[in-house]
């Protein structure tokens, strides 16, 4: 599996100038490629191939006076900029023809000097190197100081140097890692991602975003309000923009660290993890948008999925149309819809339910039932050993046939 390892980098003022030059050259080559393909399309000519793009915009362009300065940066950086463009086109075509699922992908856009994120990529061909003195050697840039917050597990295949909106630099390495299956455990968990709590687990655990994260989010909100009151084009506005960018970066970093810890714990303690597929893009169009984005569920479930694959656990999403909230986890009866402020309820069968814990138990049952129903004929190698409770647990009796709309994506 490929994993990313990110570290802060601290280029000297001289190296920052070289990096700015490389960001600029990569941007120009990317935009030249986009322009050439657009012109070819408008003129009714055939699609300019990847090879021809590289020959005309890098090799031949360097020989012209207008683009001679491209020779001042690593050729790999320029080739990787075109590789990004080619990937963007391929994603667009795959999306148009329906080969790529999910949200529609638009045609690539021109890159700007004002973009919040500037990035260049070095591959092995560029011969970047982590030196014995722990600096990162980049061709035509120099030896960068990097804060190695954790060790790289093996030789990286590429490194991307990023400058974010807050003016910080990062070195992001792609590393090929081996799977490290954890010892098997019996417990399985369903997770309900809610609004009152960040997550509620089927074992009754309720996870709330920690105070320091909420405090950072409140500070960001205040700075954003300050910014909105500043006059356009004023020096004070510029200062406020930087403050917001810094506060935003802090919230994002803090949330990511916290989610990493939480997802690692859940994956370690459970053999299988089931979550409701919330289709966050659909939800976020409603008035719940703000809380949805703040909560960052999409990144959290992505972490769970990635870690499950790495540590030999099962991860599955349960269809979002499945009525997990109003179905009684004891008798299976589907009750009436409930307002958001109803936190607990009673089923006619006599069971008393905490709204979110009940939903999490249902998510777990739905995930288990579906894996059991499909397990026999769907890629047996990737399905875990038979579930301990299969056949005896009342939940397992609810297969996909008895409850509509359950599916593991
Ligand atoms: Zn009931």
From TrEMBL:
Look up the record and give one Gene Ontology term from the biological process aspect: DNA recombination
Disordered as annotated region, ranges: 376-409
Superkingdom classification of source: Bacteria
Keywords, alphabetical = DNA recombination, DNA-binding, Metal-binding, Transposition, Zinc
Which Pfam family would be a valid example here? Answer: Cas12f1-like_TNB
- Cas12f1-like TNB domain location is 297-363
Every copy of the Probable transposase IS891/IS1136/IS1341 domain together lies at 174-285
Annotated family:
In the N-terminal section; belongs to the transposase 2 family.
Q: Which InterPro entries match?
A: Cas12f1-like_TNB, RNA-guided_DNA_endo/Transpos, Transposase, Transposase_put_HTH
Organism classification, top ranks? Bacteria, Bacillati, Actinomycetota, Actinomycetes, Micromonosporales
Compositionally skewed regions (Basic and acidic residues) per UniProt:
386-398
| Annotated ranges, domain Transposase putative helix-turn-helix | 1-46
One GO MF term on file is: metal ion binding
Protein name as catalogued = Putative transposase
Query: Per the record's keyword annotation, is Ribonucleoprotein included, yes or no?
Result: no
């Amino acid at each position: 599996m490929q994993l990313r390892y990110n570290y802060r980098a601290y280029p000297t003022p001289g190296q920052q100038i070289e990096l700015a030059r490389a960001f600029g050259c990569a941007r120009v080559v990317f935009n030249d490629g986009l322009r050439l393909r657009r012109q070819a399309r408008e003129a009714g000519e055939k699609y300019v191939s990847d090879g021809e793009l590289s020959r005309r915009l890098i090799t031949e362009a360097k020989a012209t006076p207008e683009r001679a300065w491209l020779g001042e940066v690593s050729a790999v950086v320029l080739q990787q900029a075109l590789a990004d463009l080619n990937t963007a086109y391929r994603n667009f075509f795959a999306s148009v023809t329906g080969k790529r699922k999910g949200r529609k992908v638009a045609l690539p856009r021109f890159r700007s000097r004002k973009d919040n994120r500037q990035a260049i990529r070095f591959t092995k061909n560029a011969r970047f190197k982590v030196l014995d003195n722990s600096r990162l050697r980049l061709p035509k840039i120099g030896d960068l100081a990097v804060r190695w917050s954790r060790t790289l597990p093996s030789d990286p295949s590429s490194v991307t140097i990023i400058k974010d909106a807050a003016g910080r630099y990062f070195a992001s390495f792609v590393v090929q890692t081996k799977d490290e299956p954890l010892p098997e455990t019996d417990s399985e968990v369903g997770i309900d991602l809610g609004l009152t709590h960040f997550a509620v687990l089927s074992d009754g655990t309720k996870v709330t975003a920690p105070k320091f994260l909420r405090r950072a989010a409140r500070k960001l909100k205040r700075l954003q309000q300050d910014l909105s009151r500043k006059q356009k084009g004023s020096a004070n506005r510029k200062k406020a923009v930087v403050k917001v960018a810094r506060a935003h970066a802090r919230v994002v970093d803090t949330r990511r660290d916290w989610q990493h810890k939480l997802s690692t714990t859940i994956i370690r303690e459970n053999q299988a993890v089931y979550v409701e597929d919330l289709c966050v893009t659909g939800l976020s169009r409603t008035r719940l948008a703000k809380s949805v984005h703040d909560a960052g569920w999409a990144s959290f479930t992505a972490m769970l999925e990635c870690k499950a694959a790495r540590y030999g656990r099962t991860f599955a999403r349960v269809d979002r149309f499945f009525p997990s909230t109003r179905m009684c986890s004891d008798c299976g009866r589907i009750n009436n819809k409930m307002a958001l402020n109803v936190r607990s309820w009673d089923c006619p069968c006599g069971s008393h339910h905490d709204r979110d814990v009940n939903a999490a138990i249902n998510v777990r049952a739905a995930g288990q039932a579906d894996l059991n129903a499909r397990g026999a004929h769907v890629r047996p190698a990737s399905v875990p050993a038979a579930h301990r409770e299969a056949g005896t647990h009342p939940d397992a009796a609810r297969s996909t046939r008895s409850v509509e709309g359950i599916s593991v994506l």
